[in-house]
Amino acid sequence: MADGFSFSHLMIDIHRHLAAGRVGQQIVAGSSLVLAITCIIGLILWWPLRGRTLARTLKRGQALDWHNALGLVAMLPLIIMAITGITFTWGQHVWPLVEGIQGSPTQQTRPFVVAPEHVEKLPIDPIMEKALLLMADAQWTGFQPSNRDTAVHAFFFSADGQNLRLFIDPYTGQEIKPSGEAPSGPFSWYRRNFGRLHTFGACGFIAELIWGLLSGAGGILVITGAWVSVKRWRRGNG
Prior knowledge:
Elements: H1 7-17, H2 21-46, H3 53-60, H4 63-102, H5 124-134, E1 139-144, E2 153-159, E3 162-168, H6 186-199, H7 205-215, H8 217-237
Antiparallel strand pairs: 1-2, 2-3
Helix pairs in contact: 2-4, 3-4, 4-6, 4-8
């Protein structure tokens, strides 16, 4: 193995963007959207057959019965995983649309600074070190440097499934708190917690393990759904 290889990092890379950069990330997001839509369509198709789904599965045990039973159990978690996964990739497009519909921001407005005269911005390395020190208990997920005279450095972190932001004055190196109260409402709550909903990481090991097992149901549903379709196709052409 090459030096520095990490199997866990490789799995994360594949999960997030198929180890294929931006193109893979878009494929993953598109697949998540298809998964959410397919789950909803599956619910509509299952509804007329909803009576005694689990009992029928235990009694007959046909592929369609198992497909319906597993879909019934895993549908809601799969939809949540799919929608929150889409939010990670397409958030820059989703949030402006949501805020336009809502008529108010979903998070506190980013602060700005008044650029002092004849003062240069500090080097980024010590500011980076300070930001990581201030958020030592969180996972660093992103960074947007100050690209205008009045813009602050923005650091993004994840802790207990919540998405956190840290703003640093590029001239003084001091942390700047956003002004005003944090917005309330369902979309604001979702924006703060969609990372936690995606993994259930803040709900304890058992809940996270069950959530992870349910995520595998998506693949099983594809296999059983394909098997049912093949059987019907053969029956129709037999």
